[in-house]
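Translate sequence into C-alpha cells.
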Amino acid sequence: MAKVSFRLVMPERELVNTEVDMVVVPGSEGDFGVLHGHAPLISTVRPGVLEVLQGNKVEQRFLVVGGIAEVTPERCTVLADEAVPFEQVTPEQLAERERAAEEELSDAGNDAEKAIAQKNLAVAKDLRRAQAYYASR
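Result follows.
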C-alpha cells in the first residue's frame, strides 16, 4: 500500500512529520480518513481525536482543539491550534479545563468576554467527550 506524507503542526512547533498508511482527522463536518490518492480537500478541524494508522493499527492519537487540514493525493497537513499526544492528557486535566472555562464564563464582564468563554467551555466539553470515548477503545 502506498503511504501518505503526514504533518501535524502547531504554531510553535511540528509534532509529526512522517509517512503513514492512513490518518483520521476530526473534521468540522465529521471524521474523515486520508489514504494515498485522496481527492484534494481543505477542512476545518473540530476539537477531537486525530488518529495515525500504520497498517490496520492505530500507532498514535492526538487530542486536537481545532485548526485546518489540507489534503492532496500525496499528503495530509494538519495545522492545529493546539495538539497533545493522547496518552499525555488525563481526564482530570480535561475536567479542570472545563471548570476553568465555566469560571471564565461566570466572570465574563461583557458580551465579547462571554462569547469567548462560551467557546472555551464548548471546546472543553468536546475534548472531555472525545477523551472518554477513545480511552475505552
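Note: Strands lie at 4-9, 14-20, 22-27, 30-34, 41-45, 48-54, 57-71, 75-85.
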